[in-house]
Amino acid sequence: MTVAQPSDSVFIPSAVGSSTVGDYITLMKPGVMTLVVFTGLAGMLLAQTAGYEPIHWFQQILTLMCIALASGAGGAINMWYDRDIDAVMARTIRRPVPSGRIAPDDALAFGLFLSAASVMLMGLALNWVAAGILAGAIAFYVVIYTMWLKRRTPQNIVIGGAAGAFPPMIGWAAVTGDVSLQSVILFMIIFLWTPPHFWALALYRNGDYARAGVPMMPVVVGKPRTKNQMIVYTWLLVACTLALPALHMAGVLYTACAALLGAGFLYHVYQVKRDDSDKWPRKTFGFSIYYLFMLYTVMMIDGWLVQQHILP
Questions:
Q1: I want to staple 141 with a disulfide (CB 3.0 to 4.6 A). Which of 29, 62, 67, 74 is the partner?
Q2: Which of the residue ranges 200-204, 243-247, 266-270 has the most confident prediction, judged by mean pLDDT?
Q3: What is the 3-state secondary structure (H, E, C) of the chain?
Q4: Quick one: three-class SS letters along 164-191?
Q5: How confident is the model at residue 15 (pLDDT cuts 50, 70, 90)?
């Protein structure tokens, strides 16, 4: 497969106009940012319910701000680099760079500024362990995923998914100043969640990725093998979520909800395997977001209830 490379020769803006504040917000991928900040909050609060000394409320706000800025930085640089393929995909053609509302150089400069600002602020206001993980997350998303893996291998989202799995570990490190087994499990949950989540999208956006020359799993190995891989990763995900109670790191509320949510996710991916239409991939993509949100919400509630000795 011929892999597209970013080039101004293939970048043809579909519109020309002055940028707005809203365009720069869009450049930061606010939808992705919301989930990233939420899982970072979970890591921070879970560290505090695990018995670590809580950090000041202002430091908590700064932690979430740094995670948000870092996520926005990655989104901006990603849109700068992927402007050529974004211009030929229906899902992305209206983004600020391919539409011509923000110049590529401006998008890159904005992303680099946010990267430096978020890492420096995290290091100075919290600790350099959290800042180092934050810097690593940005570098992993921009260099490892966007620039190296995305256009070269169908395993792009498997390995590159690590970038989106760092936020709970960052939140944990902001409180504790270190990395522990529980924070690694929080990382692994999102790492294993990412492939079935993103492949569900890739299944019903298969044509977009094929036109852009991006070797997503359905494009390279076909839909049947992609669906089988979704099932494998979902089983691994469910097993990972149940590792927390098995290691006495979560209570009965989380255990019950994790099992029910996992059963729901497995039901969706098995329906994807049985149905050749786009119906179940679309449903599974939506459910996967709900799944992660609910899992981490219950995790935080469970941790607080156990800390207050309300639940065993």
A1: 74
A2: 266-270
A3: CCCCCCCCCCCCCCCCCCCCHHHHHHHCCHHHHHHHHHHHHHHHHHHHHCCCCCCCHHHHHHHHHHHHHHHHHHHHHHHHHCHHHHCCCCCCCCCCCCCCCCCHHHHHHHHHHHHHHHHHHHHHHCCHHHHHHHHHHHHHHHHHHHHHHCCCCCCHHHHHCHHHHCHHHHHHHHHHCCCCHHHHHHHHHHHHHHHHHHHHHHHHCHHHHHHHCCCCHHHHCCHHHHHHHHHHHHHHHHHHHCHHHHCCCCCHHHHHHHHHHHHHHHHHHHHHHHCCCCHHHHHHHHHHHHHHHHHHHHHHHHHHHHHCCCCC
A4: HHCHHHHHHHHHHCCCCHHHHHHHHHHH
A5: very low
Across the range 57-65, mean pLDDT stands at 96
Q: Is 309 left (phi over 0), alpha (psi -120 to 50) or beta?
A: left
CA dist list (Å): 212 to 2, 88, 102, 114, 288? 10, 6, 21, 28, 25
Which residue has 């600002």 as its token pair? 117
Q: What is the pLDDT of residue 44?
A: 94
Fold exhibited by the domain 19-178: Tetracycline Repressor; domain 2 (1.10.357)
* Banded pLDDT at 203 (limits 50, 70, 90): very high
Enter the pTM of the model: 0.89
Q: What is the mean pLDDT of residues 255-267?
A: 97
Q: Report helix angle 57-81 to 167-176, nearest 10.
A: 150
